[in-house]
């Protein structure tokens, strides 16, 4: 291998929320970045600032089908998947396929290129957890045939096949379990609590809290998450590692926080709790601290500022586009 050449990384889901932030990070680290996406939930807007760069390539393709990448690869990050509850309810088969067939294709690609691969797993592998906070050793409490089963089981299969490639083929593999993450480039209408609440507060609508709002989540700012993933990829640890922010909040408190921060007059509108909605979620990040020397730096107040600003700009842009379409 020519030691002078730039390191090459393939990022699947590269036009998505997390994938596009990973592209930014690897470009900043001096890599040649190949982003792949079928654009069913990702968008070119997330990477439009990168496409003109010499060190960046974009492949519009579906990784659930055979993946071909010419040239050498040093690293693969598999981040392609619908990832919000609404998305995977609307695209259950694609969700199952990208987590299973897609992962299999990328493991095969990693093997043929002798690349190290990191797969994006999720706190959903713990299901509606019976232990709290969730440690990596917990096996989870998942309903395979419930609405979230398509995502949860695809990701559990993904972990299993990734470990099998490591064990049987000696492939260099990494598994990150991602907890709720937010930040710029999240889709305003992906149905998740955070963009829903901010969009509603800024748009003059009541905030839709599902159930009584006593369920908890722990929200991590995207820059912290990306740092954790980068460190995990560069480490030599093959078992799953939780990356997330352990600061836990109930969804009702979170809606109230958004109401306060936006200064809106809107109230909370309670709606039925979706089936199998986890009652509590908080990562135990002892492993990430010990193995990666990582912990989150951003408080919610710090992370919500740029996120809110991003959503304000997005809403403004959407209004301008709608107005100019009406004029045409
Ligand atoms: N939620 C809510 N109102 C919304 C969207 C979501 O109360 O408009 C709740 C949802 O039921 C869940 C929590 O907020 O308990 C977080 O949901 P999200 O979709 O962000 O992700 P999840 O952690 O459930 O995958």
Structural notes for this entry:
The protein contains 9 helices and 13 strands. The chain is α/β, with parallel strands linked by helices. It has a domain at 2-185 and 221-245 and 282-298: 3-Layer(aba) Sandwich (Rossmann fold). Helix 4 links the parallel strand 5 (116-122) and strand 6. The longest helix has 28 residues, at 300-327. The protein is globular and about 55 Å long.
Explain briefly what this protein structure is:
With 328 residues, this protein is α/β, with parallel strands linked by helices.
Mean pLDDT: 96
Q: How much helical structure, as a percent, in the residues?
A: 40-55%
At CATH level 2, the architecture of the domain at 2-185 and 221-245 and 282-298 is: 3-Layer(aba) Sandwich
Would you list the SSEs in sequence order as H and E?
A: EHEEEHHEHEEHEEEHEEHEHH
The coarse silhouette is globular
Q: Structural class, please?
A: alpha/beta
Number of helices: 9
Ligands in the model, by name, code or SMILES, are:
uridine-5'-diphosphate
Strand arrangement, major sheet? 3-2-1-4-5-6-11
Distance between the termini: 55 Å
The CATH superfamily of the domain at 2-185 and 221-245 and 282-298 is NAD(P)-binding Rossmann-like Domain
Biggest sheet descriptor: 7 strands, parallel
Question: Measured on Cα atoms, how large is the radius of gyration?
Answer: 20 Å
Query: Mind telling me the CATH class of the domain at 2-185 and 221-245 and 282-298?
Result: Alpha Beta
